[in-house]
Amino acid sequence: MHGEWSTRLAFILAATGSAVGLGNIWRFPYTTGEYGGGAFVLVYLLCVAGIGIPIMMAEVMLGRRGRQSPINTMRTLASEEGKSPAWQLLGWLGIVAGFTILSFYSVVAGWTLAYVFRTASGVFQGATADGVTSIFGNLVGDPERLLAWHTIFIAMTIVVVSRGVSHGLEKAVRFLMPALFVLLIAMVGYAMNTGYFAAGLEYLFTPDFSKLTTKGVLSAMGQAFFSLSLGMGAIMIYGSYLNHRTSIARTSIVIALMDSLVAIVSAMAIFPIIFANDLDPELGPGMVFKVLPIAFGHMPGGTFFGTLFFVLLVFAAWTSAISLLEPVVAWLVENRGYNRVFASAWAGVVTWLLGVVSLLSLNAWSDYKVFGMGFMGLFDFLATNILLPLGGFLIAIFAGWYLSRASSLDELNMGDRFAYRFWRALIRYVTPIAVGVVFLRAIKVL
Ligand code: PFF
């Protein structure tokens, strides 16, 4: 009944496809700019290493042991260990987070789709920073265009999920991800010639802790969860399709390294161009759309490479969106007896509706604010900085304290050696305490 990835590589590719997406190229750079650069980057990397990797191992492990949707996996594992069935609420938390994230994710993926055509039309040729900024402003100010692109992107996601996630995913990730990475490296090459490369590196890698606020630390942690697709069951469900021979520890480390590399390289391409054009690092969510087109407008073959870049970014967003929808679709199939097509359409439509609220908050409803944020910012903040870390915290508690030592030892299959004990110490103490402390401090400030 429950499928399996054909090879270990298939799982790595699918999980990388989930991890690498708008979070790396759209979200990481502007959040870094918002919280002042180097210190934020450092905290982010520490969170990836100390919180992200152990939780990723735990999620894959729980998924592989439970072999169902996150809700049913948690219920089964809790009952096997003689623990409360309330643990299935963790799966529900993930469903809420997944809907919320996909709703605004799809809006931004819609911007990316729009930029494929914008860039191909050649409008960015020779464009100035002001010109590029106003093109972005026109797009987000137009609810009808946003709605059309958002609808197309959700439909694309429904189509793939309804056919089962392994179809085509392997190939898309195997060829398109490396292509995207090569293009990013080429953009770094362009950034090197702006004369501001050193300034960009200094901004990113020289921590100035006076700029780091509690909210910045919360956001760096949230960004680590978001970027690695952790805390909501996406990686758990991909783990549920994983065969028993694969080393969970090694694969998790590889995925986390690749994901962080893509984020860092994007920032290295973007910030020098920001400084070269006298732009403000606090450009907000429009950053990548306001900065890279300046480069495409001035480099040889820019229209071609720019179009290709946005096409590849759409693919990266698509392979992430699929993983956001998969946990709920799996649950609808398992528990409601829906077929995959109906389940995917149903979940897609719910997300679509929530996405409409997000996209209207950029224009028609821009006056409505909750805690000083528009709906899109609010959804992002709640899901990324609250729900994902909360989900991760509970995953760590379950994997470290409720799942017996014998079970995790058996499932991780790495022997009762140092590496296993190190992981267990991290997941029992370091990870939950770190997330808890950041939360508690944030509550005081928020
Ligand atoms: N990791 C994806 C990105 O960086 O774009 C976004 C994401 C996918 C977040 C899946 C959460 C998730 F469960």
Question: Which band does the percent of strand residues land in?
Answer: under 5%
**Distance linking N and C termini:** 46 Å
Query: What value does the Rg take, in angstroms?
Result: 21 Å
Shape: globular
Strand count, sense and barrel status of the largest sheet are: none
How would you state the average pLDDT, rounded?
Answer: 95
Q: Give the cofactors and ligands.
A: 4-fluoro-L-phenylalanine
Helical run tally? 18
Helix content: over 70%
H-E order: HHHHHHHHHHHHHHHHHH
Instruction: Count all strands and give the number.
Output: 0
SSE class: mainly alpha
Could you list the spans in which at least 5 consecutive residues all have pLDDT below 50? none
Write up this protein.
The protein has 18 helices and no strands. The protein has helices at 8-19, 22-34, 38-66, 70-80, 88-120, 129-140, 143-163, 169-192, 197-205, 214-227, 234-240, 248-276, 287-298, 302-336, 340-360, 375-402, 405-412, 418-445. Helix 3 (38-66) packs across helix 9. The longest helix is centred in the last third of the chain and has 35 residues, at 302-336. The radius of gyration is 21 Å and the shape is globular. Residues 18-19, 21-24, 101, 226-227, 229, 232, 234, 320, 323-324 line the site of 4-fluoro-L-phenylalanine.
Secondary-structure map with pairings?
Blueprint: H1 8-19, H2 22-34, H3 38-66, H4 70-80, H5 88-120, H6 129-140, H7 143-163, H8 169-192, H9 197-205, H10 214-227, H11 234-240, H12 248-276, H13 287-298, H14 302-336, H15 340-360, H16 375-402, H17 405-412, H18 418-445
The structure holds 4-fluoro-L-phenylalanine.
The site of 4-fluoro-L-phenylalanine (PFF) has 15 residues, from helix 1, helix 2, helix 10 and helix 14.
